[in-house]
Amino acid sequence: MAAVVHKLLHHDHHANREPPSQSSQTEPSNQSGQSNQPPPSPHERQDSAMDRARDEEKHAVAQWDEQRQPLEPGQIEQDRKWVGHSSRVLRQEDFELIKTLGTGTFARVWLVRLANAREGDQHKVFALKILRKVDVIRLKQVEHVRNERNVLGSVAGHPFITTMVASFQDHDSLYMLLDYCPGGEVFSYLRRARRFNEATSQFYAAEIVLILEFLHEKMGVAYRDLKPENILIDAEGHLKLVDFGFAKKVENRETYTLCGTPEYLAPEVIRNTGHGTAVDWWAFGILVYEFLVGQPPFWDQNPMKIYEQIVEGRVRFPSAMSSDARNLISGLCTVDTSKRLGNIKGGASAVKSHAWFQHIDWDALYHRRINGPIVPHLRGPADTRNFDEYEPESDQREPYSNDMAEKWDEFFRDF
């Protein structure tokens, strides 16, 4: 993979070009044999070099999409990998906006294809997350956005985490170029099916275990927002974890920010006693329960009632649930973090060795050699049938003033 990307980024600029026409080979010249054309100015040479760099990077982006394969955990941690980098040459106009895939309070995600692409690159599609700086600042999300970009950059290449191919910015906005998952949210499939059977639940749960193992034990990152709405299905039927807005590098420290979705919050978050990566194992237990039952174990129309149920920590199981599944969920949804499965001695290995996962080939799963249980039916790489329709973006937007740029641009330098 690294060799392929190196070749893409450093190949001969003239290798794929047509030979020049006869007229372009014979410039008009004066009697001394020199061209009558004036030499390019330094500004023109700089613009030409920038255009070539942009063209090379767009081509490399397209080729990555074709060559993508899971990186080994050691490769993902390397600083020299190409995916996840901050681009100094890409611009929004390098992409054609096709359709909105999702919106938030300060971001919009578009399906895009490369604009003015080389032959063979025209049909490669991506998801482009656009965050307006004004809204990020107004909603006090600067630190969350920086965390998201930096975590996605550091984990790019994992087989079950959305790949941030590159990030870039302009005066008004921040951009994250991501791989496109045409299957849509796991949440939608779960609602249609009402609940997943045990085999489907085990497959999806096992891929999430591999995600949490990597985030916690390799990167020291707590994800903090695990739920079906943040898990997409790719074209081959595998999971991709998205939306790293609450993710934070905590390593062995505790953090105190109240964030997440009520039904999935761990007791220590509600009590505000400090939390770490153990919150993700609690949420994982809730998620497995919801896969098997169709709804989370703690629920009420009043969020305060949900919090009371969570802190009490009594999970009620339907009689039809297997004993291994009950045992797994009970171990994960343990109020005492020192006894919580995934957070006890052995970490993720203790989860992987649980009886409920006894038939999982973890190596084959990581390398995507096992077929997903739900493979989306697609008309092509740009199929958006699994995503909702959204209202157009408003034209009435507050500008990002020069005064704001002077104060805040230093915070966005990572992009």
Q: Can you walk me through this structure?
A:
Mean pLDDT is 86; it is low at 1-33. The strands form 3 sheets. The chain has a 6-stranded mixed sheet with strand order 1-5-6-4-3-2, with helices on both faces. It has a two-stranded antiparallel sheet with strand order 7-10. It has a two-stranded antiparallel sheet with strand order 8-9. Helices cover 36% and strands 12% of the residues. It has 15 helices and 10 strands. The protein is an alpha+beta fold. The chain is globular, with a radius of gyration of 24 Å. The chain folds into 2 domains: 67-180, 2-Layer Sandwich (Phosphorylase Kinase, domain 1), CATH 3.30.200; 186-366, Transferase(Phosphotransferase) domain 1 (Transferase(Phosphotransferase), domain 1, Orthogonal Bundle), CATH 1.10.510.10. Belongs to the protein kinase superfamily. Residues 42-69 have a biased composition (Basic and acidic residues). This is cAMP-dependent protein kinase. Keywords: ATP-binding, Kinase, Nucleotide-binding, Serine/threonine-protein kinase, Transferase. Residues 358-415 form the AGC-kinase C-terminal domain.
